[in-house]
Amino acid sequence: MVNRRKVVAVMATLPLAAWGLATIRAQGQAATGLEGDTVPTADGDITIHPIEHASLVLGFGEAVIYLDPVGGAALYEGLPPPTAILVTHGHGDHFDLPTLEAIAGSAPILTSQEVFDKLPEALKANATALANGDETDLDGIAVRAVAAHNITEDRMQYHPVGVGNGYVLTLGDKLVYVAGDTEPTDDMLGLTGIEVAFLPMNLPYTMTPEQAVEAINTFKPAIVYPYHYGESDLSVLETDIGDHTELRLRNWYPNGG
Which residue did the predictor score with more confidence, 207 or 45? Predict the structure, then answer.
């Protein structure tokens, strides 16, 4: 393909530790020791480390940001501890209290009101609830909560309007968008200047791959990672995304789907 469009599929049998054999950009190691894909910024690289399904870790300088950490503490053994945790909403594949209690330490937690209300007092002490549109700062990293909900009538019960968040993080001079569980909302389609986007597709809960293609071709992130995709057929992304976006297919199910 021309321009920036590159696709690399990491086979399901490939262990995470072997990513360096199958990635499209030079992979690196953040100052924290986190390994994964890297995205350059004016202030150093962003490191992207998928965990499983909808869970991931971002490294940037000394910051280690866990997003929707679930699955038990063992999944995070050997990783640097979080300096911040973001939780999009209260579904069990995004929010798991035993996992949070095991890994959070004193890290600040940003989340939705729904999740905040479910936290024990020890975690609430370090937590902040954000509504759609709210903005805050994590040690110099700007975070904005954006709407994350269904728009198709027969799916609205899964993710009602105003309950869940997606997040846009400013890392150096780059914007990273983690969508959470959502279809293409007005907030998503109105985004501009996104360097990296993580988009879900898994019926009936989030987008179809075709909806994802439409969204990508509307807000045009420089790089897109499909995640939360389960058994979805992602082939339409390989053929129908414009040259403005680099598609990065990675193994989000190292332990099987």
Answer: 45
